[in-house]
Amino acid sequence: MNTQRRQVLKTGSGAALLAILAAAGIVTPGIALADWNKAAFDAKSMADTLKALGAVSPTESKDVQVTGPDIAENGAVVPVGVSSTLPNVTMVAILIEKNPNALAASFVLPEGTEANVQTRVKMGQTSNVYALVKSDGQFFMATKEIKVTLGGCGG
Amino acid sequence: MANPMKIRAANKDGITELKVLVSHEMETGQRKDAAGAIIPAWFITELSAKHNEKIVLTSEFGPSVSKNPYLAFKFKGGAKGDKIIISWKDNKGETRSDEAVIV
To answer: What is the pLDDT of residues A32-79, one digit of tens each?
Structure first.
């Protein structure tokens, strides 16, 4: 009985070590992620994220809408949508201010694709959610506070 | 190999609405397992959608996109019977492509 328990503990710690090694391997700059905007996704604060996206001081705009629940019961799955009536929207991004990394997702919209994207994100806690939109080469944004009753980043 | 995506593409009044449900863990790299070890990050980094051969959307995801990501968007054009191809790549270099037909 006891020896069995020991074995379980042993294998358990072995798996844990492997996990750490794998994590270390992933953290090193990935060649596979060459196109992925690592700087933007690694940025912690809103300001750094905006900088990494090339969006310096975006203008608040009523023509950009963030849709989502006022209160999200489950932070692991929060439906968020971004839409805009601005012309020639080429890029849309969703930022969550209080998440460990603010940027959740960014979308490049070629001509013909509407500035109306919906997805689901994780939120660690109640936070402002920002929608960043690039229209005619200029950046605009809008914000909405979503309250989270159960965080989505815990174990 | 990951499970196939669920793709729904519907054309109405000249606008095609696409809804995609991807099957993926989207592990953030911040959670710990029962032994206290960090579960390595594993998430989709890039996803693109093609209508016939034309790209209609490219996106970059961070780990804070929910598990089994859902995505919906619309583009002008598209006709019944046209082909839609959605492809993704994750941070482990795994990829998957699935096709659907506009209805």
So the answer is: 345 789 999 999 999 999 999 998 889 999 999 999 999 998 999 999
Residues in chain A closer than 8 A to B45 (CB atoms): 33, 36
- Write out the DSSP string of A59-80: EE-TTEEEE--SEES-TTSEEE
Q: Is the pLDDT of residue A18 over 70?
A: no
Are the beta carbons of B44 and B97 closer than 8 angstroms? Answer: no
Nearest CA among A133, A142, A136, A123 for reference residue A60: A142
Shortest distance between the Cα of B50 and any Cα of chain A, in A, equals 11
- Strand duo A59-60 + A138-148: pairing: parallel
CB contact under 8 A, A32 and B32: no
A131 at B interface, C-beta within 8 A: no
* Interface residue of B60, B65, B82, B91 to substitute, partner A, most A CBs within 10 Å: B60
A83-101 burial code (b ≥16 CB/10 A, e <16): bbebeebbbbbbbbbebeb
Could you read off the pLDDT of B49-79 as tens digits, one per residue? 999 989 999 999 999 999 999 999 999 999 9
- Nearest residue in chain A measured CA to CA from B27: A153
Query: Taking CB atoms and an 8 Å limit, are A19 and B38 in contact across chains?
Result: yes
Interface ipTM: 0.92
- Integer-rounded Cα Rg, in Å, for chain B is 15
Cα of A98 to nearest chain B Cα, Å: 11
